[in-house]
Design goal:
The complex is a heterodimer of chains A (about 120) and B (about 375).
Chain A (H helix, E strand, L loop, with lengths): L4 E5 L3 H13 L3 E5 L2 H11 L3 E5 L7 H10 L8 E5 L16 E4 L4 H11 L3
Parallel strand pairs in A: 1-2, 1-3, 3-4, 4-5
Helix pairs in contact in A: 2-3
Chain B lengths: L3 E6 L3 H11 L4 E6 L2 H10 L4 E5 L7 H12 L5 E5 L4 H9 L4 E4 L4 H64 L3 H19 L4 H11 L10 H4 L7 H8 L1 H9 L8 H7 L20 H15 L11 H10 L7 H8 L3 H11 L4 H9 L4
Helix pairs in contact in B: 2-3, 6-7, 6-12, 6-15, 7-11, 7-16, 10-11, 11-12, 12-13
Classes of the chains: A alpha/beta (about 120), B alpha/beta (about 375).
Chain lengths: ~120, ~375
């Protein structure tokens, strides 16, 4: 079976490394992006199956990057899991809801895995 | 009622937008600051009701901002810290810096709104208390002014009463008021050296000043007689102490000064008049007064002799200690440097009773 590709977008290396190690171990392929622009570029170049995106990011923030992905017919099918560091996962203001799912930061990895699996119909 | 103004401080623009989005439509005015410096500027220039303050700011930290606000601007404005540092220690630091509350990111929207509401309610009550306090302070200050003014008027009228009585006597017997002032100053100085202060000192001053007020009731042919008085005339003359007592006894504010008026011719050995009181039976103010009266009589010119020297008076004082004078009062007199007595004698010629009273209260003569 083909390995699923996950794009992890986080400007903090510590956070992205944690996710990378975890998902590699669970049998996924992991790509890292450092900011919103980088995320858009890597979405285009690598065609990931799922994106885990931090909200607060340099250059283009996670919310804007997610909006751009969702407005692009080529990528709008890719599930985006937003990790929230300000409000709790269910408390995103309506007008700022862009992702398909939300998780709290710091991330509960098992909880995230279940969301990822569900999003990928695994 | 005015809308509450909330200052949101976070260096991440998206975060301020998220907070703003949740607070929108709830009746709050939102102001944004993207740095600690910016936040302090806004606190100093605008009337802000509550601050949501991110701790991790680039530049000066949220803790510092908090401390500055408490030290320089507002003691009561609610400050809620927003922190990712969930360790107990950083919460403690936050409270020590003057924060009222904190939320750990990521936080629940409803909890944020509930805390904002609670703190604004407390703030409103604090403002009301402050307002009431201000009104109360103004009222107290107003009343105090009124009382001070009334007190001054009352005190003025006391002194006018004194002036009138002393003036009445002066009309009959010239030079009396000068003499009265000098002995009043001397008596007060002795009382001060003894440790008397405040109200009683003033009473002694009034008593000394009015000691001879009873002479108003002595017939002219006796009071103003140029030569020596006969025994019968002396009997009449001595009545001035009882007459003086009758005049001053109902003047409440003279206090113990009235006893001085009544007893200023008593002697320590009991051979004085009108009641032959002795030792401690005589009011201490009166015991001082007899020394002052003798000092003034001896060191000023009289129709029948020139002024005597201070040293002659000192000899008389020591000689009569235990007889006319209370030995303790004599000792007390001698404890005051002689220069002081000279200065008082000179000054008394240029001031009035009001100045004496003022001097008593300012504790320097």
């Amino acid at each position: 079976m083909e390995k699923k590709k996950i794009l992890v977008v986080d400007d903090e290396e510590k956070s992205s490394k944690l996710l990378e190690d975890y998902f590699l171990e669970k049998g996924y392929e992991v790509i890292i992006a450092r900011d919103g622009q980088d995320a858009l570029d890597k979405t285009r170049d690598c065609n990931p199956h799922l994106i885990i995106m931090d909200i607060v990011l340099p250059r283009i923030n996670g919310w804007e990057a997610c909006m751009q992905i969702k407005q692009d017919p080529r990528y709008d099918h890719i599930p985006v899991v937003m990790s929230s560091s300000l409000f709790e996962e269910y408390d995103q203001p309506k007008e700022y809801q862009a992702g398909d799912a939300y998780i709290n930061k710091p991330v509960n990895l098992d909880h995230l895995l279940s969301i990822v699996k569900k999003s990928l119909n695994q | 009622m005015n809308r509450f103004k909330i200052l949101v401080v976070d260096d991440e623009p998206l975060n301020t937008k998220l907070v703003e989005a949740h607070l929108f439509g709830l009746g709050y005015d939102i102001i944004i600051a993207y740095s600690g410096e910016d936040a302090l500027n806004k606190v100093s220039s605008e009337k802000i009701d509550l601050i949501l303050l991110d701790v991790m700011l680039s530049g000066i930290s949220g803790f510092e901002v908090c401390r500055h606000i408490r030290q320089e601007y507002h003691q009561t404005m609610p400050i809620i810290l927003l922190t990712t540092l969930s360790e107990v220690q950083s919460k403690v630091v936050g409270f020590e810096c003057g924060a009222d509350d904190y939320l750990t990111k990521p936080f629940n929207k409803d909890e944020l709104l509930a805390r904002i509401k609670a703190h604004l309610r407390i703030k409103t009550m604090m403002d009301e208390i402050e307002e009431l306090n201000k009104t109360l302070e103004e009222k107290v200050a107003e009343r105090t002014q009124t009382i001070l003014k009334m007190n001054q008027e009352l005190s003025d009228s006391y002194h006018l009463t004194m002036d009138s009585l002393i003036g009445a006597l002066d009309v009959r017997e010239h030079e009396t008021s000068r003499h009265s002032l000098r002995v009043a100053f001397h008596t007060v100085e002795m009382a001060k050296a003894w440790g008397v202060h405040g109200q009683e000192l003033e009473e002694i001053a009034m008593g000394a000043l009015l000691h001879d007020v009873g002479k108003i009731g002595i017939a002219d042919n006796i009071l103003l007689k140029p030569g020596k008085l006969t025994d019968e005339e002396w009997v009449e003359m001595r009545k001035h102490v009882d007459m003086g007592w009758k005049i001053v006894r109902s003047i409440e504010f003279m206090g113990r000064g009235r006893e001085l008026v009544h007893s200023h011719h008593e002697r320590f050995d009991g051979k004085g008049y009108p009641n032959g009181l002795k030792n401690e039976e005589i009011y201490i103010g009166a015991r001082f007064f007899t020394i002052a009266d003798t000092l003034d009589a001896m060191t000023n010119d009289r129709p029948y002799r020139k002024a005597l020297s201070f040293d002659v008076f000192l000899e008389e004082l020591k000689k009569c200690s235990g007889a006319q004078f209370d030995p303790k009062a004599v000792e007390n007199f001698l404890s005051v440097p002689r220069d002081v007595w000279f200065q008082i004698a000179q000054r008394a010629d240029f001031v009035d009773f009001n100045k004496l009273i003022t001097a008593i209260h300012s504790k320097c003569i």
